[in-house]
Every structure is written in C-alpha cells, then in structure tokens.
Amino acid sequence: MRSHQWLWTNLGIKPVTGWSVDPFGHGSTVPYLLAASGLKGTVIQRIHYAWKQWLALKQYGDFRWVPSWSPSDPYGSILTHNQPFDIYSIKHSCGPHPYICLNFDFRKVQGEYTEYSLKAQTITDKNVKEKAELLLEQYARTGSLFPHNTVLMPLGDDFRYNVKEEWDQQYTNYIKLIDYINSHKDQYKAEVAFGTPSMYFQEIIKRYTQYPTVKGDFFVYSDIFAEGRPAYWSGYFTTRPFMKLLDRELENTLRSAEILYTVALNNAKQNKLTSYSKILERDFEKLILARRNLGLFQHHDAITGTSKSFVMRDYGLKLFEGIRDTINIQQNALQSLVFPNIPIKPDQNLVLSDIERESYEKLSRKTPIQVGPIGANQTRKILIYNSLSRPQEHVIQIRVNTSSVKVTDSEGNDVIYQVNPVWDMTDNTNLWIAADEFEVVFIAKLAELSVTSFNLVYTTSNDDKLATIYCKKCQKKTTILNGENEVKPDILKSNFNIKDIPPGDIQLENNKLKILFNGNTGFMKTVTRKHNPKIMQCGIQFAAYHSAQFHSGAYLFMPDPNEREHEKTFYNSTKIRNLL
C-alpha cells in the first residue's frame, strides 16, 4: 500500500492491474488483498502444472479468484488471468512450441551468444509473410485455451531492455509483423496490437462477461519443463528460517509502532507537548523507512531466502535497521503518553525495551532489569502494550538481576508471580544456574489497545516464590563471571530447591488437560481431556531425507530418487537435554 500511496501522491495514478508472474505459488489471501487495494484484475503464472493442464482443458484461463473463506463471488474476489505456459520468457510465451517462439525474440547485442540471437531473423519484406503466419499459428493455439480467443503475449524476460538497441530491435521487427497481419484481416481473421494487461482485461470483458470461480490457494508450485520430471518448489518454505523470523519480528514492531505513533503524535499536538511533537515528527522518516524495508523483503526472492548471500546480507541489515527504529519509535511514543510532563531529550529515554539485538545475525536477548535495595532501583515500572483490539491474558517473562523481587500492579496491589532460574548452558555436560540473572513470571490481564503498568519491587521475603526445579545433570550451585568474562561455578549453593527427576514418565496437568511425556525422550505419549477421560495415544517421530545431489538447493523439495526409503528416522533414542 505504501507504493500505491506514493503513486497517487506523486503521479496521481491508481493501479488497477496486478502482475505477479514470478512468485512460486500464491496464497488464498492474495485475491482479498489485491481487491482491497483497488485492483480489478491480476496476472499470475507459476502454479502447479496440473492446474495449468486443468485450466487449459476447461478453457478457464481467466477466472474470478475467490478467498477460501468467502462465498462464491463476494467482495474480495478478483478477475485473474493465468499465463498458460511454463514461464514468462518470449521463448515460452508466444505459444506451446518454445523453439518456434525463439524466432520472435529479436534481441541481438554485440558480444552476446544466445539461442534466440542465433534463431531469430530480422523481419524483411521477403520473410514477413512466413514469419507472420508462423507467429499467428502459435497465437491461435494459445487462444484456443480461452473461450474469448484473445491472447496476452508478454514480450520480455529477466534482465531485458537494459540496452537501448533491444528497444529498437524488438519494436521494429514486431511492428512489421503487426502491420502485415492487420493489413490482411480478411485473410487471417486476426488483429494484433501492443498493449498492457489492463487493456487485455478490458478487451475480454467486452467479449465474455461470465467467468468461472476458483477458490483457495495455488500451493505448492510444481513444474516439469526444466528436467523432464516434476520439481516441487516447497524447499524455500524452510530456506534461511532466521531471515523469515526477522521479517515477522519487523512486522510486529512496525504495526505496534504505527498505532502508538498515531496516538502519541495526536496527543502531543492536542496538549501542546512541543518537545515530544518535534521528536515524533522526526520519527516519521524512520517509520517510512521501516515500511519500505519490510515491503522490499516481501519480494519472492527475499522472504523465500533464495537470493545470493550478499543480497540476503543487505536484506538482513535493512530488517535490523527497521526493527531498531520501530522499537525506538515505540519508546518515544510511550514516554510521551506516560510521562508527558517530563520533557524528552534526543537519545535520552525514560522508557526502554527489555529486548536488545546486537546485529541481524544474532538472536535477540532480554536485558536484565536492575532492582536493588536502595535508590531508584527499589521500584522499577514495567509497561506492557497490547496492540490488539481485544483483551488479552498473557504470561509475562522478565529478566532481573536478583531473585529478591516481587510484582505489584499500578495500584500497589500484589500480583501472583514466580521466580525462575536462568540456565547457563555453556557447559555441554552440566547445567548451571546463573547467579546474577533471574526470570520473573506473572500473568497480566491487558485491556484492548492499552498500555498497562506493573512494578518490580525489591523485597527480602519471597522465598516461597522461588520455583522448585526438577532436572537431570543440573548443578545445585550457581555460576558467576570472573574478570575475563568466563563463566565459573560459584561455591555458593543456589537458593532454588533443586530435585532430581523421579524415574519413569512425566505428567503435567491443569484443569482441562493431563499430558504424559516419555521420561527418556521427552516426547508426548498420551493426552487426556478431563471432561472426557478417554486417553488419546500420541506418537512423535522425527525424520530426514537426503536431497538429490546438485538438484535441490534453496528452492526445491527434491529427495534423492535413488534412495529406497525417502524418510530416515534419525531420532530414536535419548539425545536431548533432560531439562523440564
């Protein structure tokens, strides 16, 4: 939508047609989003070859695409054109015969040696009739796949029209073919013209008013043209998962920032909070940049993780910048709403996020909040923001520097809470309890679109709030950092009550469920619903497959065809940390 707004603001143009011929499949929300953004039609290409075959057989190449959750033809559907062949290059677009279509890619650039530059001949008065009839034959075959006999033929490819010669070569040769065909309408019963996808939709609506509806998604994408056997494009679902995580994180922080920013800026202007107004107005540029960075990453070779490593690094830096800036915007907005009477200073925040990330390559981590017996650290205010339009009940987990702490609400009333240990896992054989970091856990009831405050208060009488720990191979001592920042076991015994896990299976339950876990593997064995005491048996198994050598990569799910068993169980014994 940001791009649509830019086009309208700067050029006065509202897009009405979509062009999405390269993404590897399409989700069922796509028609809804496109229709909601004002588009009237869209063009797609990469869908399963069986879908293409079925659409061609039924002459359903143009259809109304309906979201899976909607009735047959509601608001939210969009007129969709499926390009009937495998890919959008000229070779695979003019008709069903690629090596005939090569005759009609007229790019000839000095120094380039390609199959089309060898095949295509410049159109002259001597060969125009032959070439026109050859092209029309392909157009006619393509037109037979549609009820209206109208053809949309793309004229391009990746990395094309990057030299001025190609513009002249393609146009000059095609205009000769077009003029010849159009001057012999009585003979060929055809008319050819340069056009746009919007013009195509306008034309077919004149010829054919009722279109079939197709409901749902176009996953998974599969083709067979590359190697002569099906290739399933689902490998990218799990390619570079960390980058996909960053994308979701930026989506979250951006949405939260936009809501808080809107409320805070209007509040600052209405109440003449000059210092806050200036800071928030400056933050608008950061908000725009974060939107652009998130939008950029939606590219089908970005969020899929299928770009080259240096390109993915650039994406990662942009996502990291967006996350950092949107968190900063939230901090400024919250400070203006919670502390309006305290003037804000640049880069001097009273409100700070408890999550920090050093770089896009590292996981985020929680910063311990300093709580102490004297001074300002005796009580620390915690702000929890619910950006949803419905009430929420959340388990809040906060890191603190001491176990001597309790939780109160904004009125000073005690809140039920628990103090958990933070585990040091740097030792591969043992688990140590950190001596200078703890986790406070409590349940917060949050109103819709609200900011709720709680207090962390220093206390010396909360031994009953320390969790009882059941584990294997964990030490009953704590760890500290020495002068070289190396973790060393402290001689002091931990304040937590640590017990060995009894032999046998492990059972967890609440007022609704009783769940039994295998004591050796940690995998779930049975589930019992308390309102219906029937025991449901569960089985969990992990497996792996070997990819076909040199053929799988970032895009494809392609197991090795020479293996008799495509799935190999690789987890059938106790190999996990026995920490529960």
From TrEMBL:
Q: Where is the Glycoside hydrolase family 38 central domain?
A: 231-319
Note how many cofactor molecules are bound and how.
Answer: Binds 1 zinc ion per subunit.
Q: Which cofactor does it need?
A: Zn(2+)
Q: Keywords of this protein's UniProt record, alphabetized?
A: Glycosidase, Hydrolase, Metal-binding, Zinc
Q: Give the reaction(s) catalysed.
A: N(4)-{beta-D-GlcNAc-(1->2)-alpha-D-Man-(1->3)-[alpha-D-Man-(1->3)-[alpha-D-Man-(1->6)]-alpha-D-Man-(1->6)]-beta-D-Man-(1->4)-beta-D-GlcNAc-(1->4)-beta-D-GlcNAc}-L-asparaginyl-[protein] + 2 H2O = 2 alpha-D-mannopyranose + an N(4)-{beta-D-GlcNAc-(1->2)-alpha-D-Man-(1->3)-[alpha-D-Man-(1->6)]-beta-D-Man-(1->4)-beta-D-GlcNAc-(1->4)-beta-D-GlcNAc}-L-asparaginyl-[protein]
Report the GO molecular function annotations: carbohydrate binding; mannosyl-oligosaccharide 1,3-1,6-alpha-mannosidase activity; metal ion binding
Q: EC annotation?
A: 3.2.1.-
| InterPro entries for the chain | Gal_mutarotase_sf_dom, Glyco_hydro/deAcase_b/a-brl, Glyco_hydro_38_C, Glyco_hydro_38_cen, Glyco_hydro_38_cen_sf, Glyco_hydro_38_N, Glyco_hydro_38_N_sf, Glyco_hydro_57/38_cen_sf
Q: Give the record's GO CC terms.
A: Golgi membrane
For this protein, the record's Gene3D superfamilies field holds: Glycoside hydrolase 38, N terminal domain (3.20.110.10), Glycoside hydrolase family 38, central domain (1.20.1270.50), Golgi alpha-mannosidase II (2.60.40.1180), Golgi alpha-mannosidase II, domain 4 (2.70.98.30)
Any GO BP annotation: mannose metabolic process
Domain of life, per the record? Answer: Eukaryota
A single Pfam family, by name? Alpha-mann_mid
- Subunit structure of this entry? Homodimer; disulfide-linked.
Question: What is the purpose of this protein?
Answer: Catalyzes the first committed step in the biosynthesis of complex N-glycans. It controls conversion of high mannose to complex N-glycans; the final hydrolytic step in the N-glycan maturation pathway.
Family in the record: Belongs to the glycosyl hydrolase 38 family.
Instruction: Give the protein's recorded name.
Output: Alpha-mannosidase
Traced from the root, the source organism's taxonomic lineage reads: Eukaryota, Metazoa, Ecdysozoa, Arthropoda, Hexapoda
